[in-house]
Design a protein that fits this description.
The structure holds 2 protein chains of 2 kinds.
Chain A (H helix, E strand, L loop, with lengths): L2 E11 L2 E12 L3 E5 L6 H8 L7 E6 L2 E2 L5 H5 L2 E4 L11 H7 L13 H13 L15 H14 L4 E5 L7 H18 L2 E5 L3 H7 L2 E6 L2 E7 H4 L2 H8 L3 E6 L4 E6 L12 E5 L6 H9 L3 E8 L3 H8 L4 E4 L7 H13 L2 E4 L9 H12 L4 E4 L13 H11 L3 E3 L2 H9 L2 H6 L5 H12 L1
Parallel strand pairs in A: 3-8, 3-9, 6-7, 7-8, 13-14, 13-16, 14-15, 16-17, 17-18
Antiparallel strand pairs in A: 1-2, 1-4, 4-5, 9-10, 11-12
Helix pairs in contact in A: 3-5, 4-5, 12-13, 13-14
Chain B lengths: L1 H10 L1 H24 L8 H11 L14 H35 L12 H15 L11 H21 L7 H26 L4 H7 L8 H19 L2 H7 L3 H6 L4 H23 L5 H13 L3 H25 L8 H23 L3
Helix pairs in contact in B: 2-4, 2-14, 4-9, 4-12, 4-13, 4-14, 5-6, 5-7, 5-12, 6-7, 6-12, 9-12, 13-14, 14-15
Classes of the chains: A alpha/beta, B mainly alpha.
């Protein structure tokens, strides 16, 4: 049983602490993802484990032996490293490079034997590099070279494989192939794999456990699904992210949302009538533009509902797959009354959410400007035998502003009052209303 | 199938290496014999072969001694042969030192000359000649040799530690510190020359690099350093392969990088010092020979080291032959010839380094 123990490791460059009090324990068959933002200490941690950068404090034990007291050749028999930078100056052939992986197992004068050759051949077959064997390694593409380096690491027959951002140079097919390969070595032969990895989705898909680093300290460690939560991602990466289970790969997947822009906050509240994902992108953009946003009525489990929850947008919600009840309708109207503008997205209307369109009509009656994003013709998304289409006609007659798409909406929201006046189909009441709201 | 052929060629590699070395040795012997033919006195090739054959135990019986003139025998045996052999040994030593330095610094521009080992050795030699009156001897070495060794090793370590940044030796700082230390040593050398006046005229001639006053003692003096130095280095050729992949990679493959580097620095500097002691400063051999050899046979140090040594020997023997005949009666220092060949090559390397090397 191979065990790797990192106890209270602290690394410094000058007076700056790169790693602080890092402790972890890894056992045979673990596939550990080391994740964290740039500069969080991922590479430093791998370097201290790989005997390259001796920590100032703490110990790293391989099967209870301090690796810094072992000879490098004895460590090399058990541990292989795939570094981040894989440039090679001299024109060794790919096969020669892979055979160097056998070196720790050879004595000083021994030439590589047939069995070393067979091991190198197998490593190159696994990494799909055998066809490159005779090519000078400094003439290979970044991705090819990376696979050769991984083959060299495999030729070492290690019990521990450390990889530092192994996928940087690889295209998506090679990324998956390499990760599949490493994973199978981990599962079948019980090799410990530790990899620094930027791609949270690949980490989620392949790693069994993860270490999340923040400013050189372990922020979270444990099973991948315990570490990779939207709360942790938010606190460490400062990015909102949606973490869900992918039913196809049966692993978590992470959808990062771009970091919030800091637009000046506008004194304008927008109520969104949306659903089925038609409001998701708009919610984020409106927030970024500095509007305050509310939305409703949305069914729980609706994509737009989840987005609203994630973005902390006040939402009037209804039970899943249920029509809007009287109570929620009133709550929604109360929310609309507080808004300065109401926007209706190109959401399909059925009997369940037709009430939302009635609510839009109410808003117009109260003099609240209404924008309708008419991206998809209402006829094709009207599942109420024409009721929704009729309501749309009413809205148009009552002075709702119809826009073609999201961009036009943002433009209309942004234009100054003067321009609004000049626009032909905007009734003066809306401009007055905007002016009144803006002034208050 | 093409891929199976790769494996086949690779497993036949060591026999291919032996063939390369055998061919190179034949080429060296031919070069030496031709070179013996070159000089002021006109001695025919067949006579040279007879003179040499006489010295070989089993062949001596079949040689007609009557056809050999005693004067020619003396010229070949006492003047030309030691000179040519010294040229071969110095060429081999400088090329081997170049392979060592280029390997441990991962720098195709490094050699004894660039790193200051040659300059260090010559300052040491000069100090010994001018200021050390008590004759030291240590395991058969003269005072001058001991001082040359010490100064060469010190210089290379000084350059190495100046250019080391953290755990790495960036190529630019290595070259820069090499240049600075070289200029410093050259100033010391000049200062000593000016202070000493007459006593140094011989040293000035020696410094320019050449084999004009070589005797058999010089050959026996350098022989063990070059041969043992190369043999010891051969222990570390696989480590050199891995060092040329980068320090961290070498460590991950089990090389004790710092230890190997220091041992090889000492060996390279000892070989350099032994060469400088008999022939002065001869530049560029250590730079261009490993390079040309690498281009032809590849970067594996297990073949690169011995092959470069033999190619270096051939190269310097040829350069010395050119030096003897280039200007008629007065001969050129061989360092001038190697510099004339080497400088354009050095510039060529600088120009194309961006594509081949990540400096």
């Amino acid at each position: 049983m191979v065990l790797l123990n990192v106890n209270g490791v602290e690394c410094r460059y000058g007076s700056i602490k790169i790693l602080e009090n890092v402790s972890l324990s890894v056992k045979e068959g673990d596939f550990v993802g080391i994740i964290g933002p740039n500069g969080s200490g991922k590479t430093t941690l791998l370097k201290s484990i790989s005997r390259t950068l001796k920590p100032h404090l703490g110990t790293i034990l391989l099967d209870d032996k301090d690796i810094y007291s072992l000879k490098s050749v004895d460590v090399a028999k058990q541990m292989a490293v795939v570094p981040q930078d894989n440039t090679i100056s001299f024109s060794f052939t790919a096969l020669e490079v892979v055979l160097m992986g056998r070196s720790p197992h050879l004595s000083r004068f021994q030439m590589e034997t047939e069995s070393d050759m067979a091991i190198a051949r197998k490593a190159m077959d696994l990494t799909n590099t055998w066809q490159l064997a005779a090519r000078p390694v400094n003439e290979l593409s970044g991705g090819e070279r990376q696979r050769v380096i991984i083959a060299r690491a495999l030729a070492q027959k290690p019990k521990i494989l450390l990889l530092d951002e192994p996928l940087t140079y690889l295209d998506i097919v090679n990324q998956l192939e390499i990760m599949d390969l490493v994973k199978s070595l981990c599962v079948k032969e019980g090799i410990i794999v530790m990899t620094a990895i930027h791609d949270l989705n690949l980490a989620a898909r392949y790693c069994s456990t993860a270490i999340l680093l923040k400013n050189g300290k372990i922020f979270s460690a444990g099973r991948i699904d315990e570490v990779l939560t939207s709360e942790n991602i938010k606190s460490v990466f400062k990015v909102d992210a949606i973490v869900k289970k992918n039913l196809v790969t049966n692993s978590l997947y992470v959808i990062p949302l771009s970091p919030p822009k800091s637009s000046p906050i506008k004194n304008c509240a927008i109520h969104l009538i949306c659903g089925a994902g038609t409001g998701t992108a708009l919610m984020k953009i409106l927030l970024e533009e500095g509007y305050s946003v509310t939305t409703g009525v949305l069914n729980v489990l609706d994509t737009d509902f989840e987005t609203a929850e994630l973005l902390n947008i006040p939402v009037t919600s209804e039970a899943p797959f249920s029509p809007i009840t009287e109570k929620t309708r009133k709550a929604n109207l109360a929310m609309i009354n507080k808004a300065s503008t109401v926007v209706v997205t190109s959401v399909p209307f059925g009997h369940g959410n037709l009430q939302n369109l009635e609510a839009a009509k109410e808003a117009l009656k109260k003099g609240i400007p209404l924008f309708v994003i008419d991206e998809v013709p209402i006829e094709s998304r009207d599942f109420t035998q024409g009721q929704a289409t009729a309501l749309f006609g009413d809205l148009k007659n009552m002075g709702a502003v119809f826009v073609k798409n999201q961009d036009e909406l943002l433009h209309m929201l942004n234009v100054s009052e003067e321009k609004l006046k000049m626009a032909k189909n905007v009734p003066p009441s809306i401009v007055d209303h905007l002016k009144a709201r803006g002034a208050s | 199938m093409a891929t199976d052929k790769i494996e086949y060629n690779y497993s036949r590699r060591s026999s291919r290496w032996k063939l390369i070395l055998a061919l190179l040795i034949v080429a060296l012997v031919v070069t030496i014999i031709i070179s013996l033919n070159i000089g002021y006195a006109n001695i025919s090739l067949s006579e040279i072969l007879d003179i040499l054959g006489k010295q070989i135990p089993f062949l001596s019986g079949s040689i007609n001694s009557a056809s050999i003139s005693p004067i020619n025998e003396a010229i070949i045996f006492q003047i030309r042969l030691p000179r040519v052999l010294a040229g071969a040994l110095v060429g081999a030593g400088l090329a081997a030192a170049g392979v060592i330095y280029q390997g441990i610094f991962r720098n195709p521009m490094a050699d004894s000359y660039v790193l200051g080992a040659s300059a260090g050795a010559s300052v040491g030699y000069t100090v010994a000649v001018l200021y050390v009156t008590s004759a030291l001897t240590l395991i058969g070495l003269g005072t001058a040799q001991i001082f040359a060794f010490i100064f060469a090793v010190l210089t290379v370590f000084v350059v190495y530690f100046i250019s080391r940044v953290g755990n790495k030796v960036p190529i630019s700082t290595l070259l820069l510190s090499g240049i600075v230390v070289n200029i410093f040593l050259l100033s010391i050398e000049t200062l000593m020359e000016l202070r000493s006046g007459q006593a140094l005229s011989g040293i000035v001639a020696w410094l320019a690099g050449g084999f004009s006053n070589i005797v058999w003692e010089d050959v026996w003096g350098i022989l063990p350093f070059v041969l043992i130095g190369i043999a010891l280095t051969y222990f570390f050729t696989r480590d050199l392969n891995m060092l040329s992949m980068g320090d961290e990679t070498a460590q991950h493959l089990g090389v004790n990088t710092e230890g190997v580097r220091r041992i090889l620095l000492v060996i390279g500097s000892l070989i350099t010092a032994a060469c400088v002691c008999i022939s002065g400063v001869i530049g560029f051999v250590g730079l261009i020979i490993p390079h040309m050899t690498r281009l032809v046979i590849g970067p594996d140090h297990r073949i690169l080291l011995p092959a470069s040594a033999i190619v270096g020997a051939i190269f310097l023997v040829l350069c010395d032959a050119v030096a003897r005949i280039a200007t008629g009666a007065s001969e050129l220092p061989v360092g001038v010839i190697t510099a004339l060949v080497g400088t354009p090559f050095f510039i060529y390397l600088l120009r194309r380094r961006k594509t081949s090397y990540s400096l």
